[in-house]
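Example 140.
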Amino acid sequence: MKKVFTGARWCAKTIIVRNSTASLTNTGEVISLFEKDAGASTVHDVDLLLAGQPAANNGLVAKTGSGYKTDAMTIANQTSTPGSGLSTKRIALEAGHEPQTGAGNGITGDDETAEDTSATWDKTGFTAPTPGVVPAALVP
Ligand SMILES: [Ca+2]
Ligand SMILES: [Ca+2]
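Predicted structure in complex with calcium ion:
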């Protein structure tokens, strides 16, 4: 477990693996950023993306059990997959493209499973990763 600074506080970071082996497929994967407070029985989504075109067994899994709200689960795969050495990037903020009514499992009640990522993430013209660079369109 590592400690990471989120900008607001230090948090523990734990790598969680589904199906016993950590790996990425060439066609796509679900990417889930979430938080869980120590002692809490539920997690809260920070953001989700179905990057590329993951097969169903690499897709989003609904949260079930006590304490979870019912998410819409309508987030779609991207229409294409970045090639080797390229990355997908957010191009617009979520406001207006995701339910933000307090009825979801997001940290502020957003339904992260219902973002229209066709409007908020690039879908063609993928470029090399630009770690640490925030596009001007994403600066509030
Ligand atoms: Ca989102
Ligand atoms: Ca959100």
